[in-house]
């Protein structure tokens, strides 16, 4: 059922804006004749009337949401589909699709943020800024270096590959962990092991970066055993998903001093509590899930998203489907 005055197809974004500076009007320009609507993630079920395409962003699209609407496509503005019931969608004739990180610029943007976290932790950015502010010029902190260090990249999908490409020129020794080690790694990654080698590889690393895809089967991949396996003083960065980390175990190794620091852009519960012990820890560099929030990612992903939606609207499968419904919801 269409809302009064709406005659063309409707796409619903489950977030009012992409960022404070970027709204969805630019996407509307790429979907001529379409109506763009927005809602808060928690209220997605109340805004499905007349909607043809749902863009979930951080909203949960479970069986109840799928059954409440008549939309035929769930299309993520990026990669993550862990909150979408893909199987139930297929049974209802609803396509589910994403924009691959290497297509939409998300992987490059997230990899750059991982570099920022690594450099800030290794060079002790907070400590050196405090030394300047306190006038402690004669006793400036000693930083580390990526040059000659060993860095473990856990997950060699689009983000992990983009990160490896950027880390190689720093002169670091790169090790990889991925679900299918037989696929190898990009140039610069000297060794790629499987999940069973995670602890051994972490034991060699001065820094570990989590870039793995969260699929529900690898929850708390980084837990007590993983953190205990890491070298004393090593640093940990997570730019993947918060569900991959046992945050209590991470806090414990930070409190004990076993880990030298952690860079976190994602959290088990989002929005993250700004007053939590983990976010406020003196050895944590915390950012509010901004890895993909760049103008480049917005522009490139928007173009890919619109092209895929228009392809679906023309009766074809979307460009990067995550399922293949046997029938099409009408």
Secondary structure layout:
Layout (H helix, E strand, L loop, with lengths): L9 E4 L11 H6 L4 E4 L14 E3 L7 H6 L4 E3 L10 H6 L3 E3 L3 H4 L1 H17 L2 H9 L16 E5 L3 H10 L5 E5 L11 E5 L4 H5 L4 E4 L13 H6 L5 E4 L8 H10 L4 E4 L19 E3 L8 H19 L17
Parallel strand pairs: 1-2, 1-3, 3-4, 4-5, 6-7, 6-9, 7-8, 9-10, 10-11, 11-12
How would you describe this structure to a colleague?
The chain is α/β, with parallel strands linked by helices and 330 residues long. It contains eleven helices and twelve strands. The strands form two sheets. Strands 8-7-6-9-10-11-12 form a seven-stranded parallel sheet. Helix 7 links the parallel strand 6 and strand 7. Helix 5 crosses helix 7. The longest helix is centred in the C-terminal third of the chain and has 19 residues. The radius of gyration is 22 Å and the shape is elongated. The model has no long low-confidence stretch (mean pLDDT 96).
